[in-house]
Amino acid sequence: EVQLQASGGGLVQAGGSLRLACTASGLGFDDYVMGWFRQAPEKAREGVSCIVPVGGNTYYAESVKGRFTISVDNAKNTIYLQMNDLQSKDTAVYYCAADRNWGRPAHVVVVSSCMGYGIDYWGKGTLVTVSS
User: Fold this and answer.
1) Distance between the two ends of the chain, CA-based, in angstroms?
2) Which among 91, 66, 89 is positioned nearest to 11, based on CA atoms?
3) What's the burial of 107, exposed, middle or buried (CB within 10 Å: 0-12/13-18/19+)?
4) Fewer beta carbons under 10 A from the terminal one: N or C of the chain?
């Protein structure tokens, strides 16, 4: 059984930082693109950042470039999202996701996975609230 366990959400003041973690069990990082999505109230779910664990290709949404950093610890089957300079617009439920890469080129699949189509596994969300 595949499980994606996310943690690290919370309440933070604008300008502050949080680090989210997602530990995967039941799947091998070699075969998947891993990523973070978020959904704010009354808005559609959007891809925030994705990473190809083997190789390290990354993708960031324009709205978080320069503020968020995705990373991976392959030994722990865990990805992280370091979020700095948080703003009220970042308030959302954040979800960890895994998308099987099927051998596609890393520079292609890291972007396509973050579009959110065909995600194989979703974790339960973790709430991030940024107070202004």
Assistant:
1) 40
2) 91
3) exposed
4) N
